[in-house]
Design brief:
Order of helices and strands of chain A: HHHHEHHEHEHEHHEEHEEHEHHHHH
Strand content of chain B: 5-15%
CATH class of one domain in chain B: Alpha Beta
CATH architecture of the largest domain in chain A: 3-Layer(aba) Sandwich
Number of strands of chain B: 5
Largest interface: A-B, 115 and 97 residues
Oligomer: heterodimer
Structural class of chain B: alpha+beta
Number of strands of chain A: 9
Shape of chain A: globular
Number of helices of chain A: 17
Radius of gyration of chain A: 22 Å
Largest sheet of chain A: 5 strands, mixed
Order of helices and strands of chain B: HHHHEHEEEEHHH
Strand order of the largest sheet of chain A: 6-5-9-7-8
Largest sheet of chain B: 5 strands, mixed
Distance between the termini of chain A: 34 Å
Radius of gyration of chain B: 22 Å
Distance between the termini of chain B: 61 Å
Helix content of chain B: 40-55%
């Protein structure tokens, strides 16, 4: 029986020098790389496939399979691009990982580059996290100096160049093809797929794009074996992941557990909803995943179970809201975010998010009608599945799910001619907040 | 007006280094824009012309990129640029009250600097520190678990030059232009300063330690002792 929490990525975060090469080596750091470069690259791809690791950036696509899609026998260079543009609302796991243990990411990036035969790799880190950028820059510099990056890595004959590239403030660049356009020096707008990046990615060359946490999981798989990793989690959602609790919870933070843990268990470990309050709604994986309520406390947080319950596991960003929170205000704010971050390329998303903000604003002010709810659902229907990329789909999630669970609360705004909630009661410093 | 020869002689070697990182020159555009922002404090027409000239692009091609990214400013901002997260979670936890309080206190609009040029203010979207909500950023450094009062004290300190303690950053808060230079890929040597993690970052690890929970032990390679769990390759552990 696996333990309730399984710190692997987070196992050494409490050591004050955890971000240094010395600390990382103290716990066997770069020994997975030393092992990897003695293996045929194909064997590493096979091991990651067999481990069952699925993308930790939200979509959950099998990582090893993604690597396996790279065409063989072409003369174009391959590239690895690490998506470190963490910006899905509620998601806050990659940033602390890079702050505390950037070498875990760097070692994973080197092993992955070797496995996919890439001579060059990029870490695209969002720009708005200066100290994280410093730590990643330093880790890469230390790895170069130690001979883990550069020419003839550990005597293997393999050469790799690793570049840290900072973004400049655009949520959409977390979408993998928008990230590629941004990395090529353009506005970050998504590309039509197919062709997928594995065939035509960066500079139209075969490219693997993986999330930070996915890449950081690779060294442990190489070191301990696919079976070790697959021994955790559920049948189809294997391994461990970082669950991020935030909001109205007694002890918010990062909890690393096997996939399939429930919010009830995690909330227990985190001291529950803040004192004197009760759970109202929550997101299982960021704002783009339909909200859940207290009915869903026992849904196993794995890809299949969360999907079957009507949402998505996403990035395991568990944003907890108690009964002081106005769901209409929450949804309006998320929708304003999607309107602001819509890249403008496709009409359903650009126009749809604009109009949803207008209608939701009216509803929040108590000036809406019941017909407005139908209008919102109709707009959602015209965005979902019709937008160019997943941003549009994400934008409808909070709207449709909140109307499903809290239709009466929308109508209450109309009845009262305004919001029935006191925003002061929801703050972290509200009396009796337990914080 | 193009950059002076003096400015160009300072920028050119850095720009060469940036362009040299990439297989194709245009990939250097975002870091080059961070670099000209470090030079000028914002991206003005000269900076756009410089990037265009260095990369063989038209000025309109560069301007189209600048306008897409919120971190590039076309007008001067403060020496300390303050961003208050008002995405849903931070807003509900008090970010809205913090932003409203700072707007009133400073008397400035979005991206507008105070008359002394010290501080500017904007609302920012989720900055991936939700377990520290409400969050305020200054020159893209984290200020965690803020309140309207602590935010007001922070901006007053920024304006008066009082010492600012960064909860998860280096000992000294760098200026907006210094921050832009780091983002262009030129580290300032302060990476080792500051803590490795904040308290919420360690919440789960603490619980695991209290209960003695760990990942399963790695299978022992032939001829060696079984390794403790929770390490990348089976050495060490707690």
């Amino acid at each position: 029986m696996t333990d309730v929490l399984t710190p692997v990525l987070t196992a050494h975060w409490d050591e004050p020098d955890s971000f240094t090469l010395a600390a990382y080596r103290r716990h066997g750091g770069y020994q997975a790389l030393a092992k990897a470069v003695t293996m045929p690259p194909e064997d590493i791809v096979t091991a990651v496939k067999e481990s069952g690791l699925r993308g930790r950036g939200g979509a959950g696509f099998p990582t090893g399979m993604k690597w396996g899609f790279l065409p063989k026998g072409e003369d174009k260079p391959h590239y690895l691009v690490v998506n470190a543009d963490e910006s899905e609302p509620g998601t806050c796991k990659d940033i602390p990982l890079m702050l505390a243990t950037p070498h875990l990411l760097v070692e994973g990036a080197i092993i992955t580059s070797y496995a996919i035969k890439a001579p060059k790799a990029f870490i695209y880190v969002r720009g708005e996290v200066l100290h994280v950028v410093r730590r990643v820059q330093q880790a890469v510099a230390e790895a170069y100096e130690a001979g883990y990056i550069g020419k003839d890595i550990l005597g293997s004959g393999y050469d790799l160049d690793l570049v840290v590239h900072t973004g400049a403030g655009a949520y959409i660049c977390g979408e993998e093809t928008a990230l590629l356009d941004s990395l090529e020096g353009f506005r970050g707008q998504p590309r039509l797929k197919p062709p997928f990046p594995a065939v035509a990615g960066l500079y139209a060359c075969p490219t693997v794009i993986n999330n930070v946490e996915s890449i950081a999981s690779v060294p442990s798989i190489v070191a301990n074996g696919a079976a070790w990793f697959a021994g955790m989690g559920t049948e189809k959602s294997k391994g461990f992941g970082i669950f991020s609790l935030s909001g109205h919870v007694t002890t918010p933070g990062q909890y690393e557990a096997p996939l399939g843990v429930t919010l009830r268990t995690l909330l227990d470990l985190a001291g529950g909803v803040r004192a004197g309050h009760r759970l109202k709604f929550w997101t299982p994986g960021g704002s783009s995943t339909p909200i859940f309520t207290d009915e869903h406390l026992d849904v196993p947080l794995d890809f299949e179970s969360v999907g079957a319950a009507g949402s998505m596991l996403g990035t395991r960003a568990l944003q907890i809201f108690d009964e002081t929170t106005c769901v209409v205000r929450a949804v309006l704010r998320w929708t304003e975010f999607y309107e602001h971050e819509s890249c403008g390329k496709c009409t359903p998303c650009r126009e749809g998010t604009f109009w949803m903000v207008r209608v939701l604003g009216r509803l929040e002010q108590g000036e809406g009608t019941e017909e407005d709810l139908e209008k919102l659902l109709d707009i959602c229907d015209n965005i979902l599945g019709r937008a160019f990329c997943a941003l549009g789909d994400g934008a409808v999630s909070p709207v449709t799910s909140s109307i499903k669970y809290f239709r009466d609360e929308y109508l209450e705004h109309q009845k009262r001619g305004g919001c029935p909630f006191d925003p002061a009661a929801a703050t972290a410093w509200a009396t009796g907040s337990g914080r | 007006m193009p950059f002076s020869d003096e400015a160009r002689s300072r920028l050119d070697p850095d720009a060469d280094e940036i362009i040299g990182r990439y297989p194709r020159a245009r990939s250097a555009l975002l870091p080059l824009l961070h670099l000209v922002q470090a030079e000028q404090g914002h991206v003005c027409d000269d900076g756009i012309a410089y990037c265009a000239q260095r990369l063989g692009l038209t000025e309109s091609e560069v301007a189209a990129v600048v306008s897409f990214y919120t971190m590039f400013k076309r007008h001067p901002v403060g020496e300390y640029h303050v961003g208050v997260c008002t995405n849903t979670l931070c807003a509900i936890m008090g970010g809205d009250q913090i932003l409203a309080g700072l707007r009133e206190h400073l008397g400035v609009g979005d991206d507008e600097p105070t008359a002394d040029g010290k501080v500017s203010l904007e609302h920012v979207e989720c900055n991936a520190a939700c377990d520290f909500a409400p969050v305020v950023m200054v020159n893209w450094e984290f200020f965690d678990n803020m309140t309207p009062d602590s935010a007001r004290e922070l901006v007053d300190g920024l304006r008066s030059g009082a010492g600012i303690t960064l909860p998860r950053g280096p000992q000294r808060l760098c200026t907006w232009r210094e921050a832009s230079r780091i983002l262009a890929g030129f580290p300032d040597g302060q990476a080792a300063e500051g803590p490795q993690a904040g308290q919420p970052t360690l919440a789960g690890l603490r619980v695991a330690r209290e209960h003695g929970w760990a990942a399963p032990a790695a299978p022992a390679p032939a001829g060696t002792a079984p390794a403790p769990a929770g390490t990348a390759s089976g050495e060490g552990g707690q």
